[in-house]
Amino acid sequence: MEEQYLLKVDNLHTHFFTKTGVVKAVDGVSFSIRSGETLGIVGESGSGKSITALSIMKLVPNPPGRIVEGAIYYNGEDLMSKSEKQMRRIRGNKLSMIFQDPMTSLNPVFTIGRQLVETVRAHRDLSKRQAEARAIELLTLVGIPDPKQRLKNYPHEFSGGMRQRVMIAMALACDPELLIADEPTTALDVTVQAQILELLKRLQEELGMAIIMITHDLGVVAEICDRVMVMYAGRQVEFTNRIALFDHPKHPYTWGLLDSIPKMEKEKRRLQAIAGHPPDLRYLPQGCYFADRCKQATEECKMHEPTLTKLDDHHLVRCLLYEDIKVEST
Amino acid sequence: MINYIIRRLLLLIPVFIGVSLLAFSLLRLIPGDPAKSMLGNKATAAQLQSLRLELGLDDPLPVQYKDYMEDVFQGDLGYSIKSHDSVLEEISTRLPATLELSVVALIFAIVIGVLAGIISAVKRNSWFDHVSMTGALFGVSMPIFWLGLMMIWLFSVTLHWLPPSGRLSVGVHLQLITNIYLLDSLLTGNWQAFKDSFEHILMPALALGTIPMAVIARMTRSSMLEVLNQDFIRTAHAKGLAKYLIIFQHALKNAFLPILTVIGSQFGFLLGGAVLTETIFSWPGVGRYVYQSILSRDYPVVQSTILIIAVLFVLINLITDILYKYFDPRIRYD
Ligand SMILES: Nc1ncnc2c1ncn2[C@@H]1O[C@H](COP(=O)(O)OP(=O)(O)OP(=O)(O)O)[C@@H](O)[C@H]1O
Ligand SMILES: [Mg+2]
How far apart are the first and last CA of chain B? Predict the structure, then answer.
């Protein structure tokens, strides 16, 4: 039976055409997400997480960026064929996004009331009064005390955590079916991070929306994600559910990521990042992109590009180690 | 905010004293006999003596200053030694003329400059961007007198489209209220006078406004480019807002602070440029008045006019500072 997907991204390629060469920021990413589900996208800085998200919103900065190939279906509709005007009706409405830095993501010269009201009114035929009532409702929903008074405040009058709550309220203005959260907690203090994560979890239970949670923090994944896509150099290297990811991760890069989280029992241990750097996206190597940094790498890895291999119904991995396994088992 | 304005108004007092001292000493610092320098070498001893008496030049300096300030506060700005006209009366018709010219010039500069800057920033590297920014580059270094003369040659002498001088054509009647002709003709519903005075002000205002226009266009472009790259603009797009709202509300209001600074700084230029413009277009304003008074060494006129202009300047700065608060709520005034 054909499964019903809320969002389906198929073979997405988003490149930046810069003076010094073509940056293949996203290069062949496919995934899908069902209603109410939480999908995590993890990977180091520069692996293409944000550009994947912006591609779905069709907000890739152009020039220099452009989606060069691929298909994006949202609610069965082909987003690639939508005009800018049609996209505007979808953005902030049934598909919203929040960003990493709540300090800079809100307009500093408008009150948050105005910023909330304009979002509501961009998509709903409401009077100013009704929109204000909705804004108060939204601020209450995200746990901002004294919402009626707070509408008159400017972003600089809020703390970082409160600002991110405002951002979330704004994204929820029109009851989205999918919320893309691009590292929503990275810029916040640790205690505030936990609160925002709690809030997102609660909102998801109450409102039933799907979430794409972009993060480089596997702790966040453990906290709220159902399934996880691990990205490296513009590609997905592993894609599985949360349990499999922590129980039996397959890709050496994922092992590295898991090793780099400080464990509770040895808190003092230094954060152990994977040695080396991701490749320059303009001059990608032949063979596996991770081979240079991989302890398991063989000569073979530097010659042959691994393909995304299905280990079982819930586990995809892009690594030569498993291509043999697949061959053996099939 | 109210406190701030009151505080700034109180600050006007020392500024006023300083400026008046400066204007006052201008006359008294002339080496030799000021009376002689004003009346020239051919003046008789009796004439010199009567001028000295009239200006009180024989009194001690503090007494002279006290007398002068008393006069100023009674609204007596002195008399021209040449025409014996009251300076206050002259200024009350000429200041509105200069204000009208400067304000219209500034409106042209702001409207055209800001629009060109916005379009250039939004359509970066388009032909419009290249053309308008090249134009702005020439504009900032444009000599007013050359531009003014070229305009007169083209639009008045050659094409006969616009009048070369004055504020109103002979035969057009206008009941004066504020001495700002465009305003007066609107107030009295006099459409013919409005059209006529607009045709008169068009060239001088454009000549005077060109440099500020170019400066404003360049500042708007760079300021907008910076703002358009900010995260909150991406947020606005992600919210599904229309593009014109994002550009003209979200981006422009943020970009406006540096533009406002530039506009404020152009007032000084406008007042200076008005001297040239008023001379070329025979515009009966304060600039031409000061210029002619300096040439004819009519020091009482120079002294009082400078005082008025300086006070005006300080007031305009105050208004600019208050506007800042409107454009940036983060600015605190305490
Ligand atoms: N405007 C741009 N011009 C050129 N290259 C760009 C541009 N924006 C992004 N890139 C490139 O695209 C790649 C992917 O960027 P992206 O922002 O998606 O990374 P990310 O995974 O979100 O990283 P982070 O964790 O730092 O947010 C980066 O290598 C970056 O250099
Ligand atoms: Mg990112």
Answer: 9
Query: Region A16-43: what's the mean pLDDT?
Result: 91
Q: Is the pLDDT of residue B22 over 90?
A: no
A9 and A78 fall within a common domain: yes
Q: Is residue A318 part of a domain?
A: no
- Report pLDDT for A328: 44
What mean pLDDT do residues B248-252 have?
93
Instruction: Find residue A21's DSSP bridge partners.
Output: A18
This model of the complex carries an ipTM of 0.87
- Averaged over B310-319, what is the pLDDT? 82
Q: Which two tokens stand for residue A196?
A: 């925002």
- Structural domain for A11, as ranges: 1-94+176-262+272-306
CA A219 to chain centre: 15
Residue A319 lies in a domain: no
CA-based end-to-end distance of chain A:
23
* Number of domains into which chain A is organized: 2
Residues A183 and A298 in one domain: yes
Q: Is B232–A167 a contact, with Cβ atoms under 8 angstroms apart?
A: no
Q: Does residue A286 share a domain with residue A222?
A: yes
Closest CB to A59: pick one of B230, B234, B241: B234
Facing residue for B235 by CB, picked from A93, A105, A154: A105
- Residues A109, B328: C-beta atoms closer than 8 Å: yes
Residue A268 pLDDT level (bands cut at 50, 70, 90): very low
Write down the mean pLDDT value for chain A.
86
* A237 shares its domain with A143: no
Domains and CATH numbers, chain B: 2-73 (no CATH), 87-327 (1.10.3720.10)
- What DSSP assignment string belongs to B171-189? T-----SSS-HHHHHHHTT
> Is A152 in the same domain as A203?
no
Q: φ, ψ for residue A247 (rounded to 5)?
A: -80, -50
Q: Does B191 touch chain A (CB under 8 A)?
A: no
What residues have CB less than 8 Å from A175, skipping those under 6 apart? A94, A207, A209
Please determine, for residue A282, whether its predicted confidence score (pLDDT) is greater than 90.
no
Is A264 a residue whose pLDDT tops 80? no
Residue nearest ligand 1's atom 6 by CA: A16
A127 lines ligand 1 (CB under 6 A): no
Q: B135 vs chain A: nearest CA distance in angstroms? A: 26
Q: Quick check: A80 pLDDT over 70? A: yes
Q: Are residues A295 and A198 in the same domain?
A: yes
What's chain B's average pLDDT? 87
H or E stretch including A237? strand A235-241
In this prediction, residue A303 carries a pLDDT of 82
Flag if B231 and A57 touch (Cβ within 8 Å): no
Ligand 1 atom 29 nearest Cα:
A46
Domain match, A4 and A22 both: yes
Specify the CATH number for the domain of residue A50: 3.40.50.300
Q: Which of A189-204 are b and which e, b meaning 16 or more Cβ less than 10 Å from the residue's Cβ?
A: eeebbebbbebbeebb
Substitution site in A29, A51, A214, A284 for ligand 1 pocket (most atoms within 8 Å of beta carbon)? A51
Cα separation, B81 vs B97, in Å, equals 23
Partner A contacted by B223 (CB < 8 A): no
Q: Which token pair is B242?
A: 């229309």
pLDDT at B11: 82
Tell me the mean pLDDT in the region B35-63. Answer: 78
Check CB contact under 8 Å for B240 and A99: no
Sheet holding A38-42, edge to edge: A95-98, A178-182, A210-215, A38-42, A227-232, A235-241, A315-318, A308-312
